[in-house]
Design goal:
ABC_trans_aux, Rossmann fold, Cholesterol transport system auxiliary component, 3 helices, 8 strands, signal, globular, single chain
Length: 196
């Protein structure tokens, strides 16, 4: 290779580097969920004094297993909200919100599956059926099919919870607050169902 070829190759590679993109442009902001019922900072919980509960991450359809927010456009049509993206998978965000809400509203000690080994705990499983917008009704919709196994019992209790919150528009700005409100309504219903 001659001395002139090396600078030419370097210049060509730098030019190409400006044209290559290794992923989509990230949105300006990412969406998350915040529980409206939280334990105060510093409050101690003790599983010897209160029942404990394991909240698992709910299963979801493929449409909800992505960071984008689905919009039901018709009974068989699905799109995604432009520029709206979750900070992490919505099922994980929802499980954390339910955990916070149950702990605050019931006094139960919510533990992870790892922490629950060797202890008698109730367990909340389920499927997050809807977690997005319905364009036909202009609502944020959260539907959770819960399955509760109480410690020492073989039977499983199942119940469907749903909340619908109106949205002003099908856009990124309206999506986060409406879904957060609907998710908190469902989490409160779940906590009241589980009880102390």
């Amino acid at each position: 290779m001659n001395k002139l070829a090396l600078p030419t190759l370097l210049a060509a590679s730098l030019t190409l580097a400006g044209c290559i993109s290794f992923g989509a442009e990230p949105p300006d902001t990412l969406l998350t969920l915040t529980s409206t019922a939280q334990l105060p900072a510093g409050q101690q919980q003790d599983s010897s004094l209160a029942k404990s509960l394991v909240v698992t991450v709910p299963v979801t359809s493929a449409a909800l297993a992505v960071p984008r927010v689905p919009v039901q456009t018709s009974p068989t049509g699905l799109a995604y909200v432009k520029d709206a993206q979750w900070s992490e998978p919505p099922a994980r965000l929802f499980a954390r919100l339910v955990s916070d809400t149950v702990a605050a509203r019931t006094g139960r000690v919510v533990v992870s599956q790892v922490q629950a080994v060797g202890e008698a705990n109730d367990q909340l499983d389920g499927e997050l059926r809807n977690f997005g917008l319905d364009a036909t009704t202009r609502e944020a919709v959260v539907t959770f099919d819960a399955a509760l196994t109480r410690s020492g019992q073989k039977d499983i209790e199942k119940r469907r919870f749903e909340a619908r919150v109106p949205v002003a528009a099908i856009d990124a700005a309206s999506t986060g607050p409406a879904l957060n409100q609907a998710a908190n309504q469902v989490a409160a219903q779940v906590a009241d169902w589980i009880g102390r």
